[in-house]
Amino acid sequence: MRVLVVYCHPVPESFCAALRDAVLEAIAAKGCEARLVDLYAENFDPVMREPERRQYNDRAPSDPALAAHIEHLKWAEALVFVYPTWWYGLPAMLKGWLDRVWATDVAFELPKGMAPVKPLMTHISKIAVVTTCGAPRWWSHVVGHPGRKTILRGIRALCGWRCRTLFVAHYLMDKSTPQTRVAFLREVRRKLEAF
């Protein structure tokens, strides 16, 4: 299986970097092929500017900086997102990547009239999220897990009809200990290898 790992964290030595490495190890242990997109390391521009927005509903993005990202999406059979949950959602960099790359004639087709959106990512059969949250699990549920819903409902709707999902979160990250972090790394490897 071809797995695209989308990683988003600005600090190279963050716990999310350790999660990224655990994800890549689990993918390799399964004998799958992985590609890594590190949004901060490549200085991805998440800002959709006026000309891009004006053509958004009419055709695929024309910015050459997005070509490799679009190719990665077409190559992938599974996606793993690794990011910190900030203010209950996705970091702005990752949200901007979704805005700019998961675009018309890439991730979906906008038919004329009242016909529904046609998914174009039907070759993707699995989506996983590995994240950290400062809030406790119960409060994240009260708030509604907006980041989780964006990916595992919104993005999933553009993928294969039977696309499976996995969500693994280290809650109370701000109060984590070396022991909780090691245990979570083990959990991530175990769950991804089983997924």
The gist of it:
The protein has seven helices and seven strands, in the order E-H-E-H-H-E-H-E-E-E-H-H-E-H.
Walkthrough of the structure:
The protein is α/β, with parallel strands linked by helices and 195 residues long. The chain has a single domain (2-194), classed as Flavodoxin domain (Rossmann fold, 3-Layer(aba) Sandwich), CATH 3.40.50.360. 38% of the residues lie in helices and 20% in strands. It has helices at residues 15-29, 50-55, 67-75, 92-101, 137-143, 146-155, 178-194; strands at residues 2-7, 33-38, 78-85, 108-109, 118-119, 126-133, 164-170. It has a 5-stranded parallel β-sheet, sandwiched between helices. A two-stranded antiparallel sheet has the order 4-5. Helix 1 (15-29) packs parallel to helix 7 (178-194). The protein is globular and about 55 Å long. The N and C termini lie close together (12 Å).
Main sheet? 5 strands, parallel
Overall 3D shape: globular
The proportion of residues in beta strands is 15-25%
For this structure, what is the CATH class? Answer: Alpha Beta
As residue ranges, the low-confidence spans are none
Structural class: alpha/beta
Radius of gyration: 17 Å
Estimate the mean pLDDT confidence.
Answer: 95
CATH superfamily: Flavodoxin domain
Task: Outline the secondary-structure elements.
Elements: E1 2-7, H1 15-29, E2 33-38, H2 50-55, H3 67-75, E3 78-85, H4 92-101, E4 108-109, E5 118-119, E6 126-133, H5 137-143, H6 146-155, E7 164-170, H7 178-194
Parallel strand pairs: 1-2, 1-3, 3-6, 6-7
Antiparallel strand pairs: 4-5
Helix pairs in contact: 1-7
